[in-house]
Design goal:
The structure is a single chain. This protein is an alpha/beta fold. The protein has three domains: about 5-160, Rossmann fold (3-Layer(aba) Sandwich); about 185-315, Beta-Lactamase (2-Layer Sandwich), CATH 3.30.450.40; about 340-515, Orthogonal Bundle (Hypothetical protein af1432). The chain is built from 18 helices and eleven strands. The chain has a six-stranded mixed beta sheet, with helices on both faces. Strands 8-7-11-10-9 form a five-stranded antiparallel beta sheet. Helix 9 runs antiparallel to helix 10 (about 365-375). The protein is elongated and about 120 Å long. About 35% of the residues are buried.
Length: about 525
Amino acid sequence: MNVLDDDWLTDDTQDETISKVEPWNVLVVDDEPDIHHVTKLALSNIDFLQRPLNIMSCYSGKEAIALLASRDDIALVLLDVVMETEDAGLTVAREIRETLNNHHTRIILRTGQPGVAPERQVIENYDINDYKAKTELTRDKLYTSVLGTLRSYRDIMLIEHQRAQLDANRRGLIKVVDATTNIFRLQSIQQFAQGVLEQLQSLLFFEQDALYLVVNGGMTALSHEDDVTVMYATGGYSQYCGQKLGQTELSRLQGSIDEAIAKQQSIYASDHFVGFFLSPHGPINLLIIDGPVALSHPDANLIDLFCKNVSIAYENLMLNREIEDTQRSIIYQLSEVIENRSKDTGKHIHRMAEFSYVLALELGLGEEEAQIIRSASPLHDIGKVGIPDLVLNKPGPLNGDERAVMDTHARLGYEMLRESKPRILKMAATIAHEHHEKWDGSGYPRKLKGEEIHIAGRIIALADVYDALAHSRCYKDPWPRDKVLDTIREGTGKHFDPKVVDAFFRCLPKIEEIRQALTDH
């Protein structure tokens, strides 16, 4: 092969110096050692955009492919055509683009035998950036070609970086939306606080210790009079969950907390983050991440967006909580009226609510569904408002006609509630309708069987019988504990869902604790 012209060596060279600036990696692929030597001499001491060139060497196409497969920071390949085979360089060019799927590295083909690979044919059939005969590549022309090609590499990488940044921002926005969507589903303030911290940590902060604080007090800074409650905490702060904190526990973070409250904005410090949000009708909320915080500007914007969305979610939670508290209050008042009318004036509906909640959780229902069953259960006998007093309050057993009248209360209760829109009242309609159905299909009013009966109806069926047997009624005295439990066991697979019975006995100590706490007086 022809070697390069002597004018490669017209300038003096200096020893290469190691630069702390990231260099442009230029790979020379040629089977002639002299080519590597003169190329390094020609490109020595050249900077492009204040970054030096790092000249690397491979002596075969196979070696070049192996190197390029192992790293993605090669800016330019000066590639010989004829090496171990007459088309080795062409094969390398094709593998770079097609096999390695590398479209950013620039490729300049160099050949000492132009006839082997005609220029026009090569340019048309191979994804390369330039094609030069070695005889025409003087030092100046090589300099011009290399720097021009590096400039195009720089532009391509800049576009790639901008696209990656846009993709990252898009992914960040998706994460924020997903995070706040998950938070919107949470129903209790404790679940909400836990969800916020978990989502915030998953966004950017990972394993640092975290606090969710609710502050009732002044709007300028924390004081000893302020009520500061830890709604949720992780890591070293876990011991404070549900507790109130004083200024002592927060002394190291006091400055940033005061600044966040005074400015009503999030504060980013080198070793902690204080996220601030204030809902229109609620107290101050602070999200504290205690640990190293190194955020880019886009990341900080995402966190601000997250906090704004959290404030909306918090406000919705408070409004929903107020609505549901009002619904529960009305339900309990209405249920008390029903109980008073039937002269069973004890704590029956309160016990039923707690029994059903404990059983629902024991059966694996989610917290939200368990809470709805708990809230709806007091209306299980609402249909009794349509039962005549002579039947409702008759001392002693009912005759056949009276029993038929009494049994209509399940259908009456359902008809009273079935058009309701709130989810608690919808559940109450189902419970009223199905709490006298039996597992074996012998119940009323529709003789539903097994899992045809809603799980809430199956739960309330057992809770209602247990409470009725264990407490006095106008027609009976309370039964002894052992007789009550034996009756429930005997009803397994007949009156009661076996799974509900198993759950009942697993949590019997808790149920009996509730019964003792809500004893009739």
